[in-house]
């Protein structure tokens, strides 16, 4: 009896999957691989049902003889264990980042004479509908909101990128790279006050009000499914903060980060070059506690951002504040620094972790950008935010295009730098 192997990354079985199982069954004993949660995340197929339920679902399908767990995106372990005569897969993985997985399978099978059978992908209305329903489900507030906490428990670090519009949201949602035999993508989105303000041509001083910030969030939510962390600046008055917590939670935002500053807020990266006032521990704890008191679900997170290192108040102050904020109910701590070297961030994380091994730590390595995600994770960091890089890359590109057109009195010279217009008109999918 020949053995066939096929691997699924779905929570719903549709006629496309059934078609693959039928093909496989004609060839012999059918083993289906169920990808683990950690692997599904790297595919942007965030699971909406637990692994045990997915295994049960696959086992129930007519023609399936056995289900095994596949715990990596590449097939090395599964194939070396099973040595299947055939791997069966839809032919839709020939292009795009998944083609790396296809190459991996072809190489593994070639080593012992196994064969890859590619079944034409089923592009029926029903399949399209189920695919889009799965995606839409992930965009619903109750799924999106809890996803950040799920990611913190599943990922070594939650990789978060700045977004400030539908378009940047799409970049965060869809950018996938293949490197070193893995597929990688961002896990979450940061709605930065700096970049949201800059996109509106305004300074980062809490001038762009919450109604406008919510409008930005809505544009992002329309076209994405990944969880959103809002840069909530100082959180404003505690009396206002409580209303905003309710609104954000209802919309499906996963976390708000508020910083312990008061008065006219300026961007932290100015450090001591401008006047900035740190809030008292008592006031800030009261604001955190007020927010925690009104939230309705266990999913939403209020993360306290400590500005002691930015304002040169020292490590002891930062650590004391961290403990006080956690005590007041903060679901996480963001520690910020504008040094080029990550030493003070490492020291804070190590000392905080020696007393508290579970409260999530968030960092923003803008100035100390040589540090890697794995170095930060080794010091106990849970969320890494790339807070402004999309805006900082777009602005020089747009400026240089504008200058080229002005200099040449036409757009020909800059055209090679641009995305072909044929591509921009098809960039956004229609429903
Ligand atoms: C932001 O992105 O707006 C932040 C991070 O608050 S920083 O700009 O570094 O203060
Ligand atoms: Mg900010």
Please characterize this protein's 3D structure:
- Strands 6-9-10-11-14-15-16-17 form an eight-stranded parallel β-barrel, surrounded by nine helices. Strands 3-2-1-4-5 form a five-stranded parallel beta sheet, sandwiched between helices. Strands 7-8 form a two-stranded antiparallel ribbon.
- By secondary structure, the protein is an alpha/beta fold.
- The chain is globular.
- The model has no long low-confidence stretch (mean pLDDT 95).
- It contains 17 helices and 17 strands.
- Helix 8 packs across helix 10.
- Bound molecules: sulfopyruvate and magnesium ion.
- Sulfopyruvate (SPV) binds next to helix 9.
Shape verdict: globular
DSSP E strands, number: 17
Name the poorly predicted regions: none
Radius of gyration (CA) equals 24 Å
What average pLDDT do the residues reach? 95
Query: What small molecules does this complex bind?
Result: sulfopyruvate, magnesium ion
User: First CA to last CA: what distance?
Assistant: 45 Å
Given helix and strand content, the structural type is alpha/beta
Q: Within the largest sheet, what's the order of strands?
A: 6-9-10-11-14-15-16-17
Number of helices: 17
Content of β-strand: 15-25%
Q: How much helical structure, as a percent, in the residues?
A: 40-55%
Sheet of most strands: 8 strands, parallel, barrel
What's the structural blueprint in terms of helices and strands?
Layout lengths: L2 E6 L6 H13 L1 E7 L1 H6 L8 H10 L5 E5 L5 H7 L3 E5 L8 H12 L4 E5 L5 H15 L1 H14 L3 E5 L3 H9 L2 E3 L2 E3 L3 E4 L1 H7 L10 H14 L4 E4 L6 H14 L3 E5 L1 E2 L14 E2 L2 H14 L6 E6 L8 H13 L4 E4 L7 H13 L5 E3 L9 H6 L4 E4 L2 H20 L12 H4 L7
Parallel strand pairs: 1-2, 1-4, 2-3, 4-5, 6-9, 6-17, 9-10, 10-11, 11-14, 14-15, 15-16, 16-17
Antiparallel strand pairs: 7-8, 12-13
The chain binds sulfopyruvate and magnesium ion.
């Amino acid at each position: 009896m020949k053995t066939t192997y096929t691997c699924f990354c779905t929570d719903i079985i549709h006629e496309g999957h059934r078609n693959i199982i039928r093909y496989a069954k004609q060839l012999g004993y059918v083993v289906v691989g169920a990808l683990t949660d950690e692997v599904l995340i790297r595919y942007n197929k965030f699971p909406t049902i637990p692994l045990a339920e997915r295994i049960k679902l696959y086992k129930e399908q007519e023609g399936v003889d056995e289900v095994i767990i596949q715990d990596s995106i590449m097939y090395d372990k599964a194939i070396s264990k099973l040595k299947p005569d055939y791997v069966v897969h839809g032919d839709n993985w020939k292009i795009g980042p998944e083609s790396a997985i296809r190459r991996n399978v072809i190489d593994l099978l070639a080593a012992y004479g196994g064969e890859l059978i590619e079944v034409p992908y089923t592009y029926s209305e029903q399949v399209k509908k189920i695919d889009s329903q799965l995606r839409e489900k992930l965009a619903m507030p109750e799924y999106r909101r809890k996803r950040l906490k799920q990611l913190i428990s599943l990922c070594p670090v939650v990789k978060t990128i700045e977004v400030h519009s539908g378009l940047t949201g799409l970049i965060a949602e869809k950018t996938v790279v293949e490197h070193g035999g893995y597929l990688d993508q961002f896990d979450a989105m940061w709605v930065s006050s700096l970049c949201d303000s800059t996109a509106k041509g305004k300074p980062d001083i809490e001038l762009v009000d919450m109604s406008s910030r919510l409008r930005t969030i809505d544009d992002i939510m329309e076209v994405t499914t990944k969880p959103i962390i809002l840069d909530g600046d100082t959180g404003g008055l505690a009396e206002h903060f409580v209303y905003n917590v309710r609104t954000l939670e209802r919309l499906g935002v996963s976390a708000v980060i508020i910083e312990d500053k008061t008065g006219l807020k300026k961007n932290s990266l100015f450090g001591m070059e401008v006047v900035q006032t740190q809030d008292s521990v008592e006031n800030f704890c009261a604001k955190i506690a007020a927010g925690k008191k009104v939230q309705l679900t266990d999913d939403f997170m209020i993360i306290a951002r400590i500005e002691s290192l930015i304002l040169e108040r020292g490590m002891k102050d930062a650590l004391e504040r961290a403990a006080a904020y956690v005590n007041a109910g903060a679901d996480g701590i963001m520690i910020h620094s504008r040094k080029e070297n990550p030493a003070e961030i490492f020291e804070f994380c190590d000392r905080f972790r020696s007393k508290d091994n579970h409260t999530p730590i968030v960092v923003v390595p803008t100035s100390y950008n040589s540090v890697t995600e794995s170095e930060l994770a080794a010091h106990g960091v849970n969320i890494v935010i790339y807070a402004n890089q999309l805006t900082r890359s777009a602005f020089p590109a747009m400026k240089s295009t504008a200058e080229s057109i002005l200099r040449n009195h036409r757009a020909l010279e800059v055209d090679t730098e641009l995305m072909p217009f044929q591509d921009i008109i098809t960039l956004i999918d229609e429903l």
